[in-house]
């Protein structure tokens, strides 16, 4: 029973920072340039996490075949979800009807809000896709001797900018507070359930199956970082995006090394 509660606590900590990031973005008027910097920092953390905590350990424990299949599968799953969500939100340019071009300005603003909302939802979908297998991994780690501090800390740190960046974009896109709250509470709840599931249902799972589950998360993470977080950050931070991402990667790597 203690292990069950530890698994639930792992999922709560990991998914709770999604809610914290979402709450900060919704209630605090953060400049978009700061949000972009945090997203770039989070992208570096995510890349480091998937490289050292997910893919490397999956390959060592489960072998290259399940690692490769899971990694590609996670990326494809995210990209398909991205396309399904983004396609209906694309808007065609509207021709100006006023001599001063004011209709075009309104259309561009409306289109910009739609793009922002679409990007926010795509990041949220990425958080869900990688959050489920990540949480299962946290539950599995409890079986190996309690809460894994490096894994839980890395996931919690990387989830904050996901919640922050997604909610900031959803807010710009005109989403309601109720919608945003239900979205992130639902995703956070899924992470807790998935962590408990990882502890209960995969106690006798083979290393290859665990590697497959783990790398689905990693593939979805990398695709989301490349398709959404870094482009969103680069729009505001430009050349500094690479620096912030590097700092995030280095910080997560040092955490991994010191905890290991």
UniProtKB/TrEMBL annotation:
Cellular-component GO terms for this entry: plasma membrane
Keyword Transmembrane: yes
Alphabetized UniProt keyword annotations: Cell membrane, Membrane, Transmembrane, Transmembrane helix, Zinc
Subcellular locations according to the entry: Cell membrane
Name the UniProt record assigns to this protein: ZIP family zinc transporter
Entry GO MF terms: zinc ion transmembrane transporter activity
Family, per entry: Belongs to the ZIP transporter (TC 2.A.5) family.
Primary residence: membrane
Transmembrane regions listed in the UniProt entry: 6-27, 34-52, 64-81, 110-129, 135-158, 179-202, 208-226, 238-256
Membrane topology field: Multi-pass membrane protein
PANTHER family found in the cross-reference section: ZINC TRANSPORTER ZIP11, ZINC/IRON TRANSPORTER
Species assigned in the record: Microbacterium kyungheense
């Amino acid at each position: 029973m203690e292990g069950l509660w530890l698994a639930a606590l792992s999922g709560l900590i990991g998914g709770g920072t999604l809610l914290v990031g979402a709450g900060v973005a919704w209630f605090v008027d953060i400049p978009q340039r700061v949000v972009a910097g945090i997203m770039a920092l989070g992208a570096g953390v995510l890349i480091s996490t998937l490289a050292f905590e997910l893919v490397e350990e999956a390959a060592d424990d489960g072998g290259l075949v399940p690692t490769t299949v899971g990694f590609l599968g996670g990326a494809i799953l995210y990209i398909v979800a991205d396309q399904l969500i983004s396609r209906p939100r694309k808007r065609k340019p509207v021709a100006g009807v006023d001599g001063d071009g004011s209709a075009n300005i309104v259309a561009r603003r409306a289109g910009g809000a739609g793009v922002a909302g679409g990007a926010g939802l795509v990041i949220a979908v990425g958080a869900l896709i990688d959050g489920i297998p990540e949480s299962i991994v946290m539950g599995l780690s409890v079986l190996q001797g309690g809460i894994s501090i490096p894994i839980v800390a890395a996931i919690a740190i990387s989830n904050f900018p996901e919640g922050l960046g997604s909610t900031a974009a959803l807010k710009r896109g005109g989403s309601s507070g109720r919608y945003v709250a239900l979205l992130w509470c639902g995703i956070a709840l899924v992470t807790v359930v998935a962590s408990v599931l990882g502890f209960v249902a995969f106690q006798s799972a083979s290393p290859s199956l665990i590697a497959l589950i783990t790398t689905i998360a990693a593939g979805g993470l990398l695709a989301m970082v490349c398709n959404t977080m870094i482009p969103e950050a680069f729009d505001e931070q430009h050349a500094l995006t690479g620096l912030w991402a590097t700092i995030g990667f280095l910080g997560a790597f040092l955490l991994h090394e010191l905890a290991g």
